UniProtKB/TrEMBL annotation:
Protein name in the entry: Lipoprotein
Signal peptide per UniProt: 1-23
Organism: Wenzhouxiangella limi
Top-level taxon of the source organism: Bacteria
Keyword set, alphabetical order: Signal
Length: 176
C-alpha cells in the first residue's frame, strides 16, 4: 500500500519542477548556487554531461537534515545536488541510499546564462544514481527545466558523475 507521505513527496517535487520549468523570466546573472569564487584546489570528484568533458568537483557539502538528505557538489560554473528521502530514518545510516530521489544540475555559462536540469524521481530506465553518507555517483538523464536549457537542449542531457563528501560525522550532524 502506498503511504500518504508518498503523495506529499510527489506533490512537493512536482510543484518545484513546474515552478522551475514554467518561469517566464530568463535566468541570468550569477546564481548563488553556482558561485565558484574561493573554490579549493583539491578535486573531490568529476562530472560530465552532453559534451563529455570531465569537469572537476572542488567542494562538496553534505546536508543531513531530516527528512531530505542531500549532497551538494560544486565545480567552476556548476553545482550538482543529489537528494535522498529519509523521512522514516532516525539516523543518516538508516537512509536508503540505493537510488537517489532527485538530481539537479545548475550550470552558469561565461555569459552568465543559467542552465538548469532536474529529475525528480529516477526510474530504472533513467539510470542509476546511488550514494552513501560520504559519496554519490551515477549516470542519469536530466530534463531541461530553465528557458536557456530548453532552447539549447530541449530533451535534456545525460549526466555522469562521482564525488565524495569531506570527512565528518554525518550521524552526529543529523542527530543534533
Amino acid at each position: 500500500m502506498i503511504k500518504p507521505t508518498f503523495y506529499a513527496r510527489v506533490a512537493v517535487m512536482a510543484i518545484a519542477g513546474l515552478t522551475a520549468a514554467c518561469s517566464d523570466e530568463p535566468e541570468t546573472g550569477s546564481a548563488g548556487a553556482a558561485e565558484t569564487a574561493g573554490l579549493p584546489d583539491t578535486v573531490v570528484g568529476t562530472a560530465s554531461w552532453d559534451d563529455h568533458l570531465q569537469r572537476p568537483i572542488h567542494r562538496v557539502q553534505c546536508d543531513f537534515e531530516a527528512p531530505f538528505y542531500k549532497l551538494q557538489a560544486q565545480g567552476h560554473g556548476f553545482e550538482l545536488t543529489v537528494g535522498f528521502w529519509g523521512d522514516e530514518a532516525d539516523r543518516v545510516s538508516e537512509v536508503d541510499f540505493e537510488q537517489a530521489d532527485s538530481v539537479e544540475l545548475v550550470q552558469v555559462t561565461p555569459e552568465e546564462e543559467i542552465y538548469r536540469y532536474t529529475t525528480l524521481r529516477i526510474l530504472p530506465e533513467m539510470g542509476q544514481v546511488s550514494g552513501s553518507e560520504t559519496s554519490a555517483s551515477g549516470t542519469t538523464r536530466l530534463r531541461s527545466t530553465s528557458l536557456a536549457a530548453l532552447e539549447e537542449y530541449r530533451n535534456g542531457i545525460e549526466l555522469d558523475f562521482e564525488f565524495s563528501c569531506p570527512l565528518s560525522a554525518p550521524d552526529q550532524a543529523a542527530e543534533s
